[in-house]
Amino acid sequence: MLALLVLGLYPLLFIVAAAFSESSLGKPFQEWVGTANLEAALLDADIVASLVRGTAYAVGVSVVSLVLGVVVALALRHSVASGSIVRTVLLLPLIMPPVIVGTLWKLVYNPGGGLLATVTGFAGGDPASVSPLSSSAWSLPAIAVADVWEWTPLVALLVFTALLAQDEEPIEAARLDGAHGFGLFRHITLPAIAGVVAAAFFIRLVLAFKVFDLIFMMTSGGPGQSTTTASYIVYQLALREFDVGMAAAVTLLLAVVVTVVTLPVAFLTRRLQANHES
């Protein structure tokens, strides 16, 4: 309980208090300003756009990670005996620090000799013209690719564990009745692991909302504001402009958005798990 109070309650109270006050990095709680910070944040087009952009990004990468993770888990299930090396390789993106992941993919996208530019050159294109991190349209999708590469193994391992725990008798019975391929997965396998799949999606969604390291290392929020999310806005406000009050207000707005988006997923997860247990 003491650990929860120190690590959870105190930071939350500090953020709430800072959001309703004029606070700088060195001098917090200088003056109580009521809802002025929240109102200013909601009227700031860049902050609102970052919240919308971050939500779309989080949902998009989570869906892609979930689909790819389920596919990889199913493939691993059919190669349990020979898949130990593959499962070990899947752990590599997870154990790499996000800063290293961002640096790695920044080198991949480097137009001056990166992997993408090299492949483009071999295909007969102009390597210098392939620079997704310099494009307002492609910079965020490029970060999303790195994000999906980093966290899809987590989804795959969670789903794979659920597949290993699945009872084989219903599967064998369904095969005897002629169920195969996607039909077998849809009607037998998926209902049995739906709770775990939903839980994996929930975890992935929360992680996607928190993305900061990749953006910091790969684009620093640019070009322009094309890759600026709410978490990066908080960093800019608190540690570059030293406006802790406004940063706390944006943090509260982000918390509201995350709650609204994740609550239905959490409810669905509990319901699916309850149905499976019953």
Automatic annotation (TrEMBL):
Task: Give the UniProt subcellular location, in the record's own words.
Answer: Cell membrane; Membrane
Q: Which GO terms describe its biological process?
A: transmembrane transport
Does this entry carry the keyword Transmembrane helix? yes
Q: Which residues cross the membrane?
A: 56-76, 88-108, 187-209, 244-268
| Cellular component per GO, a single term | plasma membrane
Task: Please give the name of this protein.
Answer: Multiple sugar transport system permease protein
The UniProt entry's sequence similarity note says: Belongs to the binding-protein-dependent transport system permease family.
